[in-house]
Amino acid sequence: MSDVSGPSVPAIEEQFDIFSILESLFAEWKLVLSFGAGVALLAGLYGLISTPQYRAEAIAAPLNTDLSSGGLSGSSSALGSLASLAGLDQGGGQTIEQNIAILGSRSMFDQFIKAEKLKPELFPSRWDAAQGRWKPPSAVGQTLISLGLREPPGPDGAPSDWAAYEAFKSHASIVMDKDTGLLTVDFSWKDPNVAADWANRLLADANDKIRDQVQHEAQDSMRILTERIPQTTSSETKDTLVQLMALQQRIILQAQVRRDFAFKIIDPAKPPMVRASPLYGVLLITGFFGGAVLGSVLALTRRHLATRRARRK
Fold this sequence. Notes:
This protein is of the alpha+beta class. It folds into two domains: 18-48 and 280-312, no CATH class; 51-123 and 159-267, 2-Layer Sandwich (Bacterial polysaccharide co-polymerase-like). The protein contains eleven helices and six strands. The strands form two sheets. The chain has a four-stranded antiparallel beta sheet with strand order 4-5-1-6. Helix 5 (106-116) packs across helix 8 (161-169). It is elongated and about 115 Å long.
């Protein structure tokens, strides 16, 4: 019985090793460089037409505003216990962590935006400077509002407080250095003078806000103590309440005389001379390499398709 077998057909295997890839890229080097140069040019044009952003930094040392801890150390625990029994807050302010939380809180940002009237600055395209009023929403804006993608404007046509907070927050950064204990507050804005001004004024407003809170708490405690002292029959308790009264007076006095109450300004923000973004060098390099990668993929794909067509023939 004869063994009959058909002719063996060699299998066509496509191998893409590093050498074949480099060979293909070298053969298509004009295409790769063209894509790299083209995308780099587009990135450079984007850098030219985009609005430059400047970053101004202010450095501050957070301070402990708990002013009730000093001066009466021998009787502080007794004062605290008595104040609690009397329904009083011993007062004195907040800790460093609480002050930093206040500085970066939404209530602080909302207060700053309203006090400085920043909504026209944050939404210049929606503000009619010539008429001094807000523009009505465009057709696109109305569509976004109907789809729930944008909050409806207020009665006067102004953006909502939430939209202003989100816009303001995107330009602000508050970072605490755990090694040095220093706080960096920076703002990025198209005007370097405005960026520096906002950083300094935010710290100043936070100092005023925390100072006012401490003073109001101490004044409330003094008002209650003024009512309780005449009603107290125990001389020992009355003496302790008087000490509590003196403590609140000392807290108010220290809050008034300490200028940098919660954040001591170490290095105030100054208008930067160099833009933070866009950086032309980064844009050009990133654009060139991104375009070169795209050109390489296209080159390899074209060589692969050309090889398959040649083998079919």
